[in-house]
Amino acid sequence: MTRMGARLAALGLTLLLAILPATQALAGQAPATGKKIVRVGALQAVDSLNPFLAVRVVSSSIHRWMYGFLTVPDPKTLQPSPDLAESWETADDKLTWTFKIRANAKWSDGRPVTAQDAAWTFNTVMTVDAAKQANGPAVENFESVTATDDRTLVIKTKKPQASMLENPIPIVPKHVWEKVGDLGKFENDRFPAAGSGPYLPVEYKKDAYIKLRANPDYWRGAPKIDELHVVFYENPEAAIAGLKKGDIDLIGRLDAPQFQALAGAPDIVQWNTLGRRAAYLQINHGAKTIDDKPVGDGHPALKDPKVRQAIHYAIDKQALVDQVQNGLAVPADGSVIPPMYKDFFWKAEGDDLVTHDVAKANKILDDAGYKKGPDGIRTMPDGERKLEMRFSIHTEVPVEDKLAQFLTGWLKDIGIALTTKKLDSSKFTEETGFTGLFDIAISGWSVNPDPEEVLATHLCSRRPTAGGEGGGTESFYCDPEYEKLYQEQLTELDRAKRIEIIKQMQRRLYTDAPVIAIYYPNNLEGYRKDKITSITPIPEDKGLLYGGSSSWPFYSLDAVAAPAAGTSGGGLGTGLVAGIAAAVVVLGAGGFLLARRRRSAADERE
């Protein structure tokens, strides 16, 4: 072992010893005989239990279990269905929405859920800057929100809003939250916390675990299980080992190698379905701030749509699926909305369809005046600069190294030299979303049943300010045609007509190529069939378990009851120690980074 390796191993051992007392205490908490406990492994930790601040997928999942919403996706169709709002109507002006809050919903402290709770929640997001962090854009078009009585909520919008019934903001109890004070500093980790969802948090250790218990007063009826535990793993391999050993019962959002490591394991169901995520290349086609001032140092050739089109033709998407995703993805012959959303998915056909065609890519560049030099690398038409570009990827995501190797070879075939630039997550987000210091970058987004938010990441208004603040652009895109279509779909309340407009928006992204979708990763999960006896995905027809856009799978699940004695407290202690111990071993073996498997902000976000 090297001296550095020994120091890192010692550091890891110190961290392990520091947390062992907590995990051993957990291990000594034997569940009562007959208790049904399901333990979920998560490959990221909660960023906040405050629903106004939290942005990570794991946090959003927990908030779906804790709180109710106005509406939720129907488990069969994914279209809006009643939750805390049992019914709603829209006025003739298309600007006024009236929701009736159900009478049988109540908070876990016994008070009824009222329209005042919903009005306070939305008004807080509208008026308090700190409260905008998680879902601020969801209320940008709200003019006013009022409760005319305990059961009637009235929302008036500035313009018609077709996505009104897809609002992602959890409703919190006014009588609790109005006493909080500074929302930006409140972690919501004082228990018992008042909620109205199927589960309520009862114990939490930051970066380690959270325990939730079934809510007996949930308006749909209590869940079938007694407790739901979420264990946070920093090491994906340790999480897989934990599932095989039985320390946890379910894990989702796996990469292809992690998923394949479950093959042949007894009592484990491998769950492989279409996913809700699109992976794509972000092209720096001339990054600008929101006031149209150039920013960054993107290669000028990428401003030319013909160069972006040639790059698109150079990519063999099926090869990426086979070699990078081990066959566990769908080639992207469409744009940023994945095919699991059957209504909204757009597939390129005819002249729009871009296939792997190196000869065509070379001809496009030849005809546009980009000539190859003696080294095979092209220059700009004026001969002043070679087509030498950077490909920005994440330091800690090995699959992106493989992707870079393929792209480097394919772009070399068309006269573009590509070099890989590795960045940690924070630097990656800064350079590709604010400062524009990139040429081509890997990116992606998890898409909700209503795709408005992912489409909005390509609006002019999402570009950063001159001071480096922004609303979350994915491409620095600002296109009049795209903007016009976005506004049209926003105000079109006829679902079928709106779908067609959204497909036109996707076609524009596909043909103009500020981003180039490369594949749609499958939803890869695993669970123990000897513990979980039933669970319903969303959508019910081959949908998602963990990480979906509803609490339905975890409300629906049932499990085997705990044995009488001699077992740990739901396995939290054992699984957590295994995860940390595995990280310590990796440190001592070669100094590999003891760090969370961070991904892009888009992947961590809901």
Automatic annotation (TrEMBL):
CDD domains per UniProt: PBP2_NikA_DppA_OppA_like
InterPro entries named among the record's database cross-references: Peptide/Ni-bd, SBP_5, SBP_5_dom
Entry's transmembrane regions: 572-595
UniProt name for this protein: Peptide/nickel transport system substrate-binding protein
Signal peptide location: 1-27
Pfam family, one: SBP_bac_5
UniProt keywords, alphabetically: Membrane, Signal, Transmembrane, Transmembrane helix, Transport
Domain of life: Bacteria
Subcellular location: Cell envelope
Main location as per UniProt: other
Domain Solute-binding protein family span(s) in chain numbering: 80-459
Keyword Transport: yes
Listed Gene3D superfamilies: Dipeptide-binding Protein, Domain 3, Periplasmic binding protein-like II
Keyword Repressor: no
Family of the protein in this entry: Belongs to the bacterial solute-binding protein 5 family.
